[in-house]
Design brief:
The protein starts with a strand and ends in a 21-residue tail after the last helix. It has about 160 residues and is mainly alpha-helical. The chain is about 40% helix and about 10% strand. The chain is built from 5 helices and 4 strands. About 5% of the residues are buried. It has a two-stranded antiparallel ribbon with strand order 1-2.
Length: about 160
């Protein structure tokens, strides 16, 4: 069985008898497939920005045709929960009610609201009738009438 190395720059396989090993002063070992990879590494080029490297292809999702078929969109699952001021039981009970019952409740609520408004109006009428009797004041006319301040018409 032959031992395959991987190029530290391009990411391609290096077969026996090929490539070059570069050992830095600090003792770290690098394997390169060819002179192109080695020179790019020594020029400190980023392999993620070089289009022919494996890192670039992985980063930019090139050549992954098989994976595209597997990916599916997830369906949103509807979930019911309580709203402020109404528990889940109340909401479900209201939903399961018959339309006639709901309509009757709505009419009853409308009737109650109208009665309240009518009572307020009645109270206002009573107070209006009482106020003028306590204050019997004749309106005093100012000198000159309505438009005494204006002389000379419209400008």
């Amino acid at each position: 069985k032959m031992k395959l190395e991987v190029c530290n720059y391009s990411g391609y396989k290096i077969y026996p008898g090929h490539g070059k090993r570069y050992i830095r002063i600090d003792g770290k070992c690098f394997n390169f497939l060819d002179k192109k990879s080695e020179r790019s590494f020594l020029m400190k080029r980023n392999p993620r920005k070089i289009s022919w490297t494996v890192l670039y292809r992985r980063k930019n999702k090139k050549g992954s045709i098989e994976e595209v078929a597997k990916k599916r969109t997830r369906r949103n699952v509807k979930f019911q929960r309580a709203i402020q001021g109404a528990t889940l039981e109340n909401i479900m009970a209201k939903r399961n009610q018959k339309p006639e019952v709901r309509k009757a409740q709505r009419e009853q609520a409308i009737r109650a609201a109208k009665d309240k408004i009518r009572q307020k109006k009645d109270v206002k009428k009573v107070t209006k009738v009482q106020q003028p009797s306590t204050k019997a004041k004749a309106p005093s006319r100012q000198k000159g009438g309505k438009g005494a301040g204006r002389v000379g018409g419209k400008r």
